[in-house]
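Sanity check

After download, print the first record. It should look like this:
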Amino acid sequence: MHLEADSVLIGLAALGTVGADELLRCANPADRSYSDQHSRPLRRRQSLLGRALLRSIAAAELGGEESDVAIRCDQRGKPWVSDGSGRILPASVSHSRDCVACAVSPAGLLGIDVEYCDPRRDIRGMGSFIAGAQGDDLDLPGFYRLWTMHEAHGKATGRGLRFPAPSSLLRAATSTERALAITLEGVVCRFRSVELKGYALAVCLAEPGSDPRSPETG
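Expected C-alpha cells:
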C-alpha cells in the first residue's frame, strides 16, 4: 500500500502476505547480501521486504523502473535511493513484527518509524524513561505516538535518540493533531502520525538545509 503525505511517499506492507521464497526470488544480489547480515530469519525477511518496498515507492517517485533503483547507505547507515539518471533522494525504512514501512521524499531529509502497540509493555515506566516525569501519565496511544515521533526525528536528522525527549515533542505527541510542524534543536520538522490496526507509525520531514549532504556510499 502506498500513502502520500506532506510531499512524502510512504509504503506499507505485511510480511504475512509475502512468502520467504517469493522474497528471495524478487531480491537482487545486493538485497540478498544486505539481508544476510542478519542472523535471525525474521530480520532477514523484514530486510528483504523493506528493500523491495523501498524500490517500489522510489520508482514511483522517480518515474522509472524498480530495476533501475539503487539503494545505498551513508556512513551513519541512512539509506538513499537513486535512479539511472543520477537523481538521489533520502529514504527511511522501519519494521516491527509483521509490519514493514518505508518512505522517500524530494522535499528534505526524513525518518519513519513503525511500532507494534504492545498492551503488555510497561507504558508508565517507559514513558518516564523517554520523557522524564512528564511521561508518567501517557496512555498507550500517546506513548507510541511519542516513541515513533522521537525515533522518526532521530532518523531524519541523523542525531539518533536522545533522552529525555524534548518537551515540545511530548506536547506534539499528546495533541489531537496528527499533522504538525515544530522546531527541534533549531530544525523545523514536519510530523505526520498514522494509526494502523495494532501499530503506530510516524514520519518526520526535516526542513531542507538542515543537513543537505548526499550519501557516502559503501
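If your output differs, re-run the checksum step. Summary of this record's structure: Confidence is low (pLDDT under 50) at residues 210-218.
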